[in-house]
Amino acid sequence: MSSLLRLATAGSVDDGKSTLVGRLLYDTKSVLADQLDAIERASVDKGMTTPDLSLLVDGLRSEREQGITIDVAYRYFATPNRSFVLADTPGHVQYTRNTVTGASTAQLGVLLVDARNGVVEQTRRHAAVLAMLGVPRLVLAVNKVDLIDYDEAAFTVIAKEFAAHATSLGYAEGTVLAIPVSALQGDNVATKSENTPWYSGPTLLEHLEEVPVAPDPHEAPFRMPVQYVIRPRTPEYPDYRGYAGQIAAGTVRPGDEVVVLPQGLKSTVESVDTADGSLDEAGTGKSITVVLSDDLDITRGDVIAAADNAPKVTDEFTAALCWLSSKQLEPGARVLVKQGTRTVQAMVEELNARFDEQTLSIVDAPEKLELNEIGNVSLRLAEQLPVDDYTVSPRTGAFIVIDPKDGDTLAAGLVGHRFSQLKGVTEPEVA
Amino acid sequence: MTTLEAAADAARDNLAALESEAIHIFREVAGEFDRPVILFSGGKDSTLLLHLAIKAFWPAPVPFPLLHVDTGHNFDEVIAFRDHVVEKYGLRLVVASVQDYIDDGRLVERADGTRNPLQTQPLLDAIADNKFDAVFGGGRRDEERARAKERIFSLRSAFGQWDPRRQRPELWNLYNGRHRPGEHVRVFPLSNFTEADVWNYIAREQVELPSIYYAHQRKVYSRDGMWLTEGPWGGPRADEEVHELTVRYRTVGDGSCTGAVESTASTVEEVIAEVQASRLTERGATRADDRMSEAAMEDRKREGYF
Ligand SMILES: Nc1nc2c(ncn2[C@@H]2O[C@H](COP(=O)(O)OP(=O)(O)OP(=O)(O)O)[C@@H](O)[C@H]2O)c(=O)[nH]1
Ligand SMILES: [Mg+2]
């Protein structure tokens, strides 16, 4: 069982995400006395009788003034079995870009709904974002059950409706669990609630401790974007030349046949180095320095990949975009694409489709893509790039779109992602 | 597997992941910026930062200089440690001195004698004068609520200011370091370390730290509920009684507002046990500057602080 779980909250504004995160921290004794003092004082000032646990995460002045979350807060806590990295994201539609930020690295999404309202527009938007990004598992936390008298029937209706929606988004049975909770009172968060005798499943915390994390794709072919060339030129290491990077997929061992892309140069791994010594093997996520047996011209931006299973090298591909900017995207736009360790100029040749995440339908050839919309585009690049499909190799299939004029990040990009990969969605063939 | 073994495994995986993440961040900056610099005070977080930088570029030397914003209210042990580290690794050290600013009138000493807030101007000037475009800081998200909101690559305006409402999305590990002339990026490779992670990693790597992080005898006096040490910052006052206690520091900052904690922890293992048992955060226990208001840290960051 993996010992580290990264999770992100999601769901509509005021559905109780920050309170739930505060409750998790509080009930796992991850809140220290001075932090608690501070929020107790602030809660009294606001005329509240119990401490407002959302203040543990809503750390910005304007968040506290407005009582909403604006940007992601990262919090950490651990139980004897697992360490958790928790991203509490905003529900407000205006800050969806920050929700995408928190979700991009999550292994589990905790999607909240208010039990009184059930699934709403923003729930569907966030569910679509989580599905697109390939977050492998979801929890539907049906929150505020204290306000519906812990009514089983109401819970079941919401859970059923969402299960159907999640299935349409491609979530297989067993990857989505609905839990009735009250973040405010603590029901079924860390302790089993006596108010919901009809619920026999795990508490949220039990589930977080036990949920399987998708194994590192050890079987996946090796990929490492070169970040930096290490050439000490010191008396001790006069001729050392190593390629520094973090393994994006797969594993590497000395003796492995590799290919350097986009050039297509073949070589063999001579050693896998770290400051702690050379390794017999290194896996996904590890930062290493690779020494090759041939003297090649390799620079930042190149990708070292398994020779027998290399990514395709291309200067055009289709991709899904989560558009995160208030500047709208139109066909013909010139942008920068940062993928791996390379940033290249690109042109958006075609807007092929827009995914309507509310109705789960496809709009063909839209005229533009606006803030928070999800689309499929055809990109042409000024240089050849080695790319994988996001669904096959997320770290080498992910890219960001940057505005060349002011450097803003405009979109999250997923190479090759087709909406037809979301089950239940039919789309016309893209030319 | 027993629970203890599972817990040990969890801890090891976690530290390995944090190390790889930090190394990746250092290398991204080295690859994309012209003039990066590491903020280095000699404290534990900046020492850890440097340790990771050394690992990131091994066997080549660290390709960045260090910048110390010196408040003039230093612990001798920390300055000695700073100079020792600079010498040992053959690094270049740039010092921005708050004292110089006070001496020539560019800054005025505050009534309370605290110099932490005075660091911002010399820091921003040093960044501008040296044309630093990326500035590594040892900030961690678990330190404080406002820090928990900051990106790993945090864009600062030409005035060094952080605008929390205008942070860029930060997706996967694809950092966007684009900035306009005059702007710079603060980079936080330790963002996802907790205080416990820092100490566990220090133990694992046997990182050398200034001696004041471990228990020692010290003459201290109590002010605002903290044990402050005697020093040129004007303490103790006549009404403040001096005690000789066994203490250590959990954080090291400006001497006038960094408190010691009573402790007998004299080894890394003892410190780890103490941190785990503590019911106070490190800032809550030791930093007068953060007790000033609910949003003290956010306000200082907006002004251009670390
Ligand atoms: N009765 C009740 N109220 C709750 C519960 N959970 C949260 N609330 C209240 O709902 C309001 C919103 O809670 P937050 O935790 O700030 O909501 P949020 O989802 O984080 O909101 P944004 O981050 O702005 O999207 C607060 O007044 C909470 O006290 C619950 O389980 N029961
Ligand atoms: Mg919130």
Defining key terms:
heterodimer; A: 431 residues; alpha+beta; Rossmann fold; Elongation Factor Tu (Ef-tu), domain 3; 3 domains; eight-stranded antiparallel beta sheet; six-stranded mixed beta sheet; 8 helices; 21 strands; 33% strand; B: 306 residues; alpha/beta; 2 domains; four-stranded antiparallel beta sheet; 10 strands; globular; binds guanosine-5'-triphosphate; binds magnesium ion; EC 2.7.7.4 (chain A); sulfate adenylyltransferase (chain A); T_Tr_GTP-bd_dom (chain A); GTPase activity (chain A)
How is the secondary structure organized here?
The complex is a heterodimer of chains A (431) and B (306).
Chain A (H helix, E strand, L loop, with lengths): L3 E8 L5 H11 L5 H13 L15 H6 L6 E6 L4 E6 L7 H8 L4 E7 L6 H12 L4 E7 L8 H17 L7 E5 L23 H7 L12 E3 L2 E3 L11 E5 L10 E5 L3 E10 L2 E3 L7 E6 L10 E4 L5 E12 L10 E6 L2 E15 L4 E4 L9 E14 L6 H4 E5 L6 E7 L16
Parallel strand pairs in A: 1-3, 1-4, 4-5, 5-6
Antiparallel strand pairs in A: 2-3, 7-14, 8-9, 9-13, 10-11, 10-14, 11-12, 11-13, 15-19, 15-21, 16-17, 16-20, 17-18, 17-19, 20-21
Chain B lengths: L2 H30 L3 E4 L4 H14 L8 E5 L5 H13 L4 E5 H6 L16 H10 L4 E3 L16 E4 L27 E4 L7 H11 L10 E8 L2 E4 L12 E7 L12 E2 L5 H10 L4 H5 L9 H8 L3
Parallel strand pairs in B: 1-2, 1-4, 2-3, 4-6
Antiparallel strand pairs in B: 5-6, 7-8, 7-9, 9-10
Helix pairs in contact in B: 1-2, 6-7
The site of guanosine-5'-triphosphate (GTP) has 20 residues of chain A, from helix 1.
3D architecture notes:
Chain A: One of its GO terms (biological process) is sulfur compound metabolic process. Chain A: InterPro entries: CysN_GTP-bd (IPR041757), CysN_II (IPR044138), CysN_NoDQ_III (IPR044139), G_TR_CS (IPR031157), GTP-eEF1A_C (IPR054696), P-loop_NTPase (IPR027417), SO4_adenylTrfase_lsu (IPR011779), T_Tr_GTP-bd_dom (IPR000795). Chain A: GO terms for molecular function: ATP binding; GTP binding; GTPase activity; sulfate adenylyltransferase (ATP) activity. Chain A: Residues 2-216 form the Tr-type G domain. The complex is a heterodimer of chains A (431) and B (306). With 431 residues, chain A is α+β, with helices and mostly antiparallel strands. In chain A, strand 11 and strand 12 form a beta hairpin. Chain A starts with a strand and ends in a 16-residue tail after the last strand. Helices cover 18% and strands 33% of the residues of chain A. Chain A has three domains: 4-210, P-loop containing nucleotide triphosphate hydrolases (Rossmann fold); 223-306, Translation factors (Elongation Factor Tu (Ef-tu), domain 3, Beta Barrel), CATH 2.40.30; 312-421, Beta Barrel (Elongation Factor Tu (Ef-tu), domain 3). In chain A, the strands form three sheets. In chain A, strands 7, 8, 9, 10, 11, 12, 13 and 14 form an eight-stranded antiparallel beta sheet that branches. Chain B folds into two domains: 3-198 and 296-303, 3-Layer(aba) Sandwich (Rossmann fold), CATH 3.40.50; 210-291, no CATH class. Helix content of chain B is 35%, strand content 15%. Chain B is built from nine helices and ten strands. Chain B has helices spanning 3-32, 44-57, 76-88, 98-103, 120-129, 195-205, 268-277, 282-286, 296-303, and strands at 36-39, 66-70, 93-97, 134-136, 153-156, 184-187, 216-223, 226-229, 242-248, 261-262. In chain B, the strands form two sheets. A six-stranded mixed beta sheet of chain B has the order 3-2-1-4-6-5, sandwiched between helices. In chain B, strands 8-7-9-10 form a four-stranded antiparallel beta sheet, with no helix packed on it. In chain B, helix 2 links the parallel strand 1 (36-39) and strand 2 (66-70). In chain B, helix 1 (3-32) packs across helix 2. The N and C termini of chain B lie far apart (43 Å). In chain B, 53% of the residues are buried. The chains are: A alpha+beta (431), B alpha/beta (306). At the A-B interface, helix 2, helix 3, strand 2, helix 4 and strand 9 of A face helix 1 and helix 2 of B. Guanosine-5'-triphosphate (GTP) is lined by residues 13-19, 54, 68-69, 90-92, 143-144, 146-147, 182-184 of chain A.
